[in-house]
Amino acid sequence: MVGGNVGTWKAQDRVYEADLLNGIESWxxxxxxxxxxxLDITPRMIADFDIVxxxxxxxxxxxxxxxxxALAENRPKHVIWMTLLEGDMRTYLKPMPHLRELFDASxxxxxxxxxxxxxIQSLTQSPVFTLGIPYPVDGVRACAISRExxxxxxxxxxFLKTRWNEYQVATQLHIPIIGYERRxxxxxxxxxxxxxDCGSFFNVDINRTYIxxxxxSADLTVEYAKPFKEYxxxxxxxxxxxxxxxxxxxxxxxxxxxxxxVPIISTISTGHAPKLFPxxxxxxxxxxxxxxxxxxxxxxxxxFAKNACDYAFEHIQEFKPDMMMKKLYTIIDTL
Length: 335
Prior knowledge:
Elements: E1 2-3, E2 8-10, H1 26-31, E3 34-37, H2 43-47, E4 51-55, H3 62-73, E5 80-85, H4 99-105, E6 108-111, H5 117-122, E7 128-129, H6 137-141, E8 151-156, H7 165-170, E9 177-181, H8 191-198, H9 206-214, E10 220-224, H10 228-235, E11 238-243, H11 252-260, E12 264-267, H12 273-276, E13 281-282, H13 288-300, H14 302-316, H15 321-334
Parallel strand pairs: 1-3, 4-5, 5-6, 6-7, 8-9, 8-11, 9-10, 11-12, 12-13
Antiparallel strand pairs: 2-3
Helix pairs in contact: 3-4, 11-14
């Protein structure tokens, strides 16, 4: 597994993370494999493995894309190369040098959002599948707060500075609203991005202060981002979640809600919402009226909310690590 995070490590070195980690590194634990930063990968390392998963979201320049293309084109014949498209699939609407050639050099392309699959396939002769990323269903489920112990509150999934359509829905429910923001870190490597993105080098509270003034509802509580285990427990204590996403990503919030047994109102663009929560999926991120109607039904109809969650939990099982490995081997058998 080749990605943008620093370091090289094996699955057995970090087994303590396997139950909750839901990023691309989940492939490392599912396959009992090795993780490597994309800048450290070499032809010699590639030759030592049967399968290489290259996360294209980590490649930040056309020069580096050309280098990765060369690695794919010149790899030994025994190596299966999966190019993993993580992030927002709208990125690939913009023409990029070396992209199509890298796709063609891949054994197959893993497009993480079903809505983009046919478009990506039009760019390459290599097969394209919406395989995605393994999800630690059982580990996340163990963090869930049972429905009878949940508060009558609504949880806004994205950071509050990201967009405010969820907030516009939440304020019409007249119940407590729980949202999150990032606390700035004062590490040296983050100082320039702190100033660029937030307007301060050192004010760790600037995001929360800014959003609290902008979204001045008395019902809103702004929390700081939390570690996985604490976040899952805290977020699952709300009666419902809102995620009116405008992106075409892997839609992890929908997976989180399904695993935790919390109803989530989300959009078609997530890819997962129509499959896991079909009765709670709106057509687009602007359809707040429909979202408000759905939210009221969740709050007023326990049977409806429970059925929606039971359906989602039944259908999220296909994303468990062992099931995803079976899907991967099935794809490889077709190559």
